Amino acid sequence: MSNPSLLILPGDGIGPEVMAEVRKVIDWFGAKRGIVFDVEEDLVGGAAYDAHGTPLTDETMAKAQSVDAVLLGAVGGPKYDSLDFSVKPERGLLRLRKEMDLYANLRPAQCFDALADFSSLKPEIVAGLDIMIVRELTSGIYFGEPRGIQTLPDGSRVGINTQRYTTEEIRRVARSAFELARRRNNRVCSMEKANVMESGILWREEVQWVHDNEYPDVELSHMYADAGAMQLVRWPKQFDVIVTDNLFGDILSDCAAMLTGSLGMLPSASLGAPMANGRPKALYEPVHGSAPDIAGQGKANPCACILSFAMALRYSFDLGEEATRLEKAVQNVLDDGVRTADLMQKEGGTPASTSQMGDAIVAALDASL
Ligand code: NAD
Ligand code: IPM
Ligand code: MN
C-alpha cells in the first residue's frame, strides 16, 4: 500500500514559520512511529501570486483534490492589500474550500490547564473548557450572489453581498455537528439570527428537522448569534457543540480563541464529503492568519498549526491515538512553562522562539515513547 499523501501549503507571513515546525513533527512520526507520509509542498496566497500572478494555480488546485489531506499555514498580508479583489491571497484559500466542497469547518476551543491564567477571562470561567464550533464554510454571505460593488445613476456606490442558504447546505453541516456531539457530550446549540433574517429562519427550521428526524437523542438548543457571542464570554462551559453559518462562525471562533489564551493555540479541520476510500476530503489549518505584525521574527506560536496536524491524524488517517499523543506533547510542553511571545504576558515561564517551541514539542513526543 502506498503512503498517505499530504499537500503542504505554507502560504504567507508566519505560515511558513509555523509550518516548518509541523514538518519536524511529521518527520518525527515517520522516524519514530513508522507513519510515513508522502509530502509535497506548493504555493498559495501571496506567495503563489508573486510566483504565478494568481493566489492558487489550477495545478495546485488539482493536487489538493488528489491528496489524502491538505495542510495550510496562512495567507494574506499588507503587501497584497492593493491587489485586485479577484487575485487577493484570501481568494486562493476560498477557492480551495469551495472547490473541495469543505462544508464543515471544525474549530475546537480547548483551554489547556497551563493557560487558564492567560485568557482575558477569569481562570474559573475557562479552566477545563472544551467546546467545538462547527462553522458552515462553503456558502452563506461569503459566496452568495448577487455580489459586487456597483455605481448607482447618481454616482454613489453600493456594496452588495447576499446571505443565501439552501435546505441541503444547512442539513449536511447540521449532520456533522450532531455526529460530533454524539462522540462528545451530546449537546448541540445552533446559532443564527432568525429574528431578523429569512436565511436564519430556514437555518433554525432545517437544523430542527435534522434533529427530529435523524438525531432525536442529541440535545438541541437554538440561540440568536448575538446572544450566543455574549454567552460565549459569560459562561462558555455551557456549550458542547455550536453549529452556525459561515460569517457568524468566523467571528464566534475568533472570539472563542481568546477563551483559550491565544489565537496561536486554535487549530481547525475543514471537512467535505467522504472520498472513495471513505475518508473526508480535508484541509487542516490554524484559525489564525498570517500575523504580519510578528512575521519574520521567530515569535509565532506554532501550536495551532501543530494541533491542526493532530486533527489530520484523527480525522483523515484514523490515527486517533497518535493525535492524542501529539496533543499531550503540546500539553506537557505548556505544563513545563515553555512560552512563545503571545503567551508571555504573565510572570514566569521559559521564553521560546517558534522553532524552540517546535523542538520542545518534538522532545515531548520522544518522551512519550
Ligand atoms: P491574524 O490572525 O493574522 O493576527 C491577529 C493577531 O493575532 C495579531 O496580533 C497576530 O500577531 C496574533 N497572532 C496570530 N497568530 C499568531 C500566532 N500563531 N502566534 C502568535 N500570535 C499570533 O489576523 P489579522 O491581523 O486580522 O490578519 C492578517 C492577515 O491574515 C490578513 O491578510 C487576513 O486576511 C489574513 N488571515 C488569513 C487567515 C487564513 O489564512 N486562514 C485567517 C485569518 C486572517
Ligand atoms: C479564517 C479567515 C478567512 C475567512 C479569510 C482569510 C478568508 O478569517 O479562516 O477564519 O474569513 O474565512
Ligand atoms: Mn477568521
Automatic annotation (TrEMBL):
Tell me the protein's name: 3-isopropylmalate dehydrogenase
Annotated residues that bind substrate are located at: R97, R107, R135, D226
Function, please?
Catalyzes the oxidation of 3-carboxy-2-hydroxy-4-methylpentanoate (3-isopropylmalate) to 3-carboxy-4-methyl-2-oxopentanoate. The product decarboxylates to 4-methyl-2 oxopentanoate.
Q: Which organism is it from?
A: Oceanicella actignis
Q: Where is the Isopropylmalate dehydrogenase-like domain?
A: 5-361
UniProt GO cellular component terms: cytosol
Q: In what pathway does it function?
A: Amino-acid biosynthesis; L-leucine biosynthesis; L-leucine from 3-methyl-2-oxobutanoate: step 3/4
- Spell out the Pfam families in the cross-references: Iso_dh
SMART domains for the chain: Iso_dh
Reactions mediated catalytically: (2R,3S)-3-isopropylmalate + NAD(+) = 4-methyl-2-oxopentanoate + CO2 + NADH
Cofactor names from the entry are: Mn(2+); Mg(2+)
- GO BP term, example: L-leucine biosynthetic process
Positions of NAD(+) binding: 77-90, 289-301
Q: Hey, where's the site called Important for catalysis on this chain?
A: Y142, K193
